[in-house]
Amino acid sequence: MSLNTSNPQIVWEVKPQTDLENMTGEQISTPGFEMSDCVQGVVPGTVFTAYVEAGVVPDPNYADNIYKVDETFYNRPFWYRTEFKLPASYSAGKRMWLHFDNTNRFADFYFNGEKVSGTKSSSRDVSGHMLRSKFDVTDLVNKSGKNAIAVLITDPDQKKTRQAKDPYGVACSPSYLAGAGWDWMPYVPGRLAGITGNVYLAVTGDVVMEDPWVRSELPTLQKAEISISTDIKNISSASKTVVVTGVIQPGNITFSKEVRVEREATAKLSINKDDFAQLVINNPKLWWPNGYGEPNLYTCKLICSVDGKVSDVKEMTFGIKKYEYKMVDNVVGYPVLTFFINGQKVYLKGGNWGMSEYLLRCHGKEYETKIRLHKEMNYNMIRLWTGCVTDDEFYDYCDQYGIMVWDDFWLYVAYNEVAQPEAFKENALDKVKRLRNHPSIAIWCGANETHPAPELDNYLREIVAREDHNDRMYKSCSNQDGLSGSGWWGNQPPKHHFETSGSNLAFNTPAYLYGIDHGYGLRTEIGTATFPTFESIKEFIPKEAWWPLPLMSS
What we know:
The chain has three domains: 191 residues, Sandwich (Jelly Rolls); 114 residues, Immunoglobulins (Immunoglobulin-like, Sandwich), CATH 2.60.40.10; 201 residues, TIM Barrel (Alpha-Beta Barrel). The radius of gyration is 25 Å and the shape is globular. By secondary structure, it is α+β, with helices and mostly antiparallel strands. It is built from eight helices and 28 strands. GO terms for molecular function: hydrolase activity, hydrolyzing O-glycosyl compounds. It comes from Bacteroides reticulotermitis JCM 10512. InterPro entries: Beta-gal/glucu_dom_sf, Beta-mannosidase-like_N2, EBDG/EBM, Galactose-bd-like_sf, GH, Glyco_hydro_2_cat, Ig-like_fold, Ig-like_GH2. Belongs to the glycosyl hydrolase 2 family.
């Protein structure tokens, strides 16, 4: 059951915590509690977006309205609240799970008058915008009457105002870094704090599967070896014999395996060609990037059963492919990073994806249009700059249209001393587990224009090796060590775009080995001047500002 605002039965309310300072989360999450003088929330979305959609804030896309907003109103904690009734399909004896795919930046969760995250006295229980939250509310759910949810969202600690000296708010990572303002987008009041991912209820039995993973090995292009693994968690107080059955399509490849899981424990299930010969696929339909072949996809459906009754079902989409990375001499004889897929060298064409929409209002099918246009422009890669997208649909459509993803983590330049390194690690691990089935992910990158601090760099390298089995390369930095990036920020001779470089960053001196006369190789970021049509300009700039051009005072 979806608990997003797209469900007409669901109404979220949003209100500053200070307006309810005498109320506890237990009280606010009690069915029937009235949260008066609030605005209607947008989920997924942000606190600021809720006030924009409610008409409290003039259109931030018009003129310089966004710069006139009092950011201090939004840079503080807010309550989200909603009520719902269970659907008639809810079955007695089943477990009910409350899911939040993303919350930014800190969150505390309450359900039907009880705190369900952390401890009764803890706060900021969930930390980071990429971390999934799941709560077993079986014993709290009201099966016939109303149920209530309350979520306290706390905004990032750093960059409290537009003028704050904290550079870009990077210390608050993991978060949507650009929300603190960049040289290409404004500071967003509240810095994109909110319930920014899907919210939903799911029903299972006592045994559930977590983070199932399908991998493919390609000894040759004519033979693929499939392996499947998943964690199997037994929530009950009795040990269980679990049967996991699966089917891969196309091909109707079936398999089944039994595993014993002790009470309140988790077991690892792994299945490969040594267990089932049918997991060797002859003449597989390979996943290719745009322009090199079809982006063929497979599905794997897993059913977890106990005593002949279905307890949990998971379905994954995956692609059979093989990424390789080699250092190949460029036109002036310097080795540069070169991508190969399924044994074929790939000429990378694409651009940087800054934000899907700077107020996080892009969702669902809107990604289909944006990704399809990349395909129609003959692009084959998107660099997800600083990991600014947390929506699964982005990756789904990249898989579908053959658009590879250079996927950054949430670090930038020298300011990568994050305030909560353990939260960063937890979010990074969840990101890799959540996204690793997507064939479109071509590389994991630690930081934008720098290397992560050693502690984080080593951790990222470790989890990519362990949780993604090094299927994709981990690259510490977006513009060094066999590649380049950033700029231009000024006019350069034409030859600088190809054979020589004034410097890596278009500054006065070479930033690293691939400097003057060494060429660029793969370039992960290059500025291109683009201009909207005048008809578009008229939609967001007042007529009196068309000409002469207004000059900003700062």
